[in-house]
Amino acid sequence: MAIKILHWLCRLVLAGVFIYSGYVKLQEPLQFAVAISGYKLVPENLVFPMAKTLPWVEIILGLAVLIGWKIRHFSAATAALLLFFIVVLAITISRGIEANCGCFGLDERISPLTILRDSLFLIPALYLVFEPRLTRRWLKTAPSD
Amino acid sequence: MIRKSGWMIVLILMSLIWPASALPYDESSGQVLGGSANSPIQIEVFSDFECSACREFYLGTVRQILQEYSSKDKVCFIYHEFPLSIPSHKYSRDAARYAEAAGKLGVKQLLAVMDALFMDQAVWSQDGKIEPSIAKVLSRDDFQKLKNALSDSNINLAIEREIDLGNKNQVRSTPTMFIRYTGKQQKVEGVVTYVVLKQFIDNIVK
Fold first, then answer.
1. What separation in angstroms does the CA of B195 have from each of A91, A100, B57, B187?
2. What average pLDDT does range A84-94 have in this prediction?
3. Tally of structural domains, chain A
4. From the list A31, A45, A52, which residue is nearest B186 (CB)?
5. Which of A29, A34, A88, B66 is the most buried if burial means most Cβ atoms within 10 Å?
6. DSSP readout, chain B?
């Protein structure tokens, strides 16, 4: 039962974060494009296509995790995307660029806290990827009646 | 079972988040730089002549958009004065007054004055001597008319109206754009480069 609750909790958190984040960006693609531009990592002609595509990628990943279809694969994809975001944030901070995060809206400046938050989102994603192995181990070590 | 519940949650979420759309924008002031009410895209920008990001946006993006899209009536560009009341922008309201007065003479004169104000930003923002920059780009006759227009109290009222409009629409920094197209509206804060804005516009009007 506890494993089932943990499984659903991870799915709901991960799906909620990705769907919400994608939805917010989808509502304001140009503002998101400005945010991407601010990172100074992407060539200008790729900024808008990226701003249009990335929100859909996030929404599809979120929906797939929520539905549970090929959950390990899609959880791995969300983990990979989160890792990508973390690397981009770290590079931008280390370059001393004061960019707008563009993560969940307009107002957030990037900071080490943004990296910490994205790292926390990695936990449910990685749990879902390694769930079968982890539950096997837990069931083995659990005291039997 | 688990997959079925997942689908149900998806459907509930979709119904909750999908109908969102932008609110209509209150249009009551501003100076039209190009395009017309029939243009499929309307861009309203709130800007300050003493702000460096506004300079970058105007010289790098706005001028090209006016030339490439507004001249073909694809984009209606409306400019709103939004001089920020901060100590480092001592002369931005004065500059806004010159631009507002130039607008009374015509779009050509307004654009010439805006060009001059942004081009010479580093010069006049030092000492507040705006007139020499403007005198360079207007004919003697127009310059005299502009000076006469400056004494009109309506100039200050127009600027106040635009500031009020900006505040009402939660303009917190400059430049801030509101873009309306096909019944939607987007608010964009910060500098949008020409390449990005062009791709966005091309996506709507081919």
1. 24, 19, 12, 18
2. 95
3. 1
4. A31
5. A34
6. -HHHHHHHHHHHHHHHHTT--PPPP-----EEEE--TT-SEEEEEEE-TT-HHHHHHIIIIIHHHHHHTGGGTSEEEEEEE----STT-TTHHHHHHHHHHHHHH-HHHHHHHHHHHHHTHHHHHHH---HHHHHTTS-HHHHHHHHHHHT-HHHHHHHHHHHHHHHHTT--SSSEEEEEETTEEEEEESPPPHHHHHHHHHHH--
Which of B17, B179, B200 minimises the CB distance to A48?
B200
Question: Could you tell me the domains of chain B?
Answer: 24-204 (3.40.30.10)
Each residue's pLDDT, cut to its tens digit, for chain B (206 residues) gives 555 666 666 555 555 544 443 434 445 578 999 999 899 999 999 999 999 999 999 999 999 999 999 999 999 999 999 999 888 888 999 999 999 999 999 999 999 999 999 999 999 999 999 999 999 999 999 999 999 999 888 899 999 999 999 999 999 999 999 999 988 889 999 999 999 999 999 999 87
ipTM exceeding 0.85?
no
Does A50 touch chain B if contact means CB atoms closer than 8 Å? no
Q: Which residue type occupies B6?
A: G
- The pLDDT score that the predictor gives to residue A135 is 79
Cα torsion angle, B154, B159, B165, B167, sign: negative
What's the domain range around A26?
Answer: 2-141
Chain A, window 84-143: residues with a beta carbon less than 8 angstroms from a chain B beta carbon: 100, 106
Report CB contact under 8 Å: B188, A48.
no
